[in-house]
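Hi L.,

You mentioned the student needs an example of a multi-chain input paired with its predicted structure. This one should do, with 230 residues in total across all chains.
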Amino acid sequence: DTAVSQTPKYLVTQMGNDKSIKCEQNLGHDTMYWYKQDSKKFLKIMFSYNNKELIINETVPNRFSPKSPDKAHLNLHINSLELGDSAVYFCASSSRTAGSYNEQFFGPGTRLTVL
Amino acid sequence: AQTVTQSQPEMSVQEAETVTLSCTYDTSESNYYLFWYKQPPSRQMILVIRQEAYKQQNATENRFSVNFQKAAKSFSLKISDSQLGDTAMYFCAFMKDQGAQKLVFGQGTRLTINP
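Structure written out for the whole complex:
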């Protein structure tokens, strides 16, 4: 059984389009994350939700909007796609226990290509 | 803000050799976690090893071990008896103990194990 799954795995689209990436985890975690890996392989946090509440919102264009309908799902919607949005987007999840280590489990990634 | 630096963009060794990947970080936190992640060509992020900053003993996981120097803010990964399957990108990462537990990644080191 896949612990953290993302759909789709590959997404090719034209500039200006709107697209969504979906993430689901079946680990019973209460915290989910979106990371972006650019063309130089650099990984950076974008957002994090804990119990459907946004707790991390890095400097990301407001064309990116995360949505968490429940603790097991965190979707990423991107409006007016630009060439620079081409990247691999990783979803991750963890439990959030204060003062202790909480491993983040990563999904397989979604490679987004904007033409 | 925390930063993580990996100064070796690429490394290459022969199978069965030992290789050490370097990582330095900058933080004003006293309690935190450090990680090494492996990303093979499949792009899945795999946790290799973690170190709690409050522990003086270096973490080991089979062929993988770390040299954690807290005062120097250094966290290197040693891979012993390297195998072809160790070929991958390796990322050093930092996580605070308190607050929003986001992973801060280094730039990555591309490791190639040659037969």
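You could point out the following to them. Chain A is about 0% helix and 55% strand. Chain A has a mean pLDDT of 92.

Best wishes,
N.
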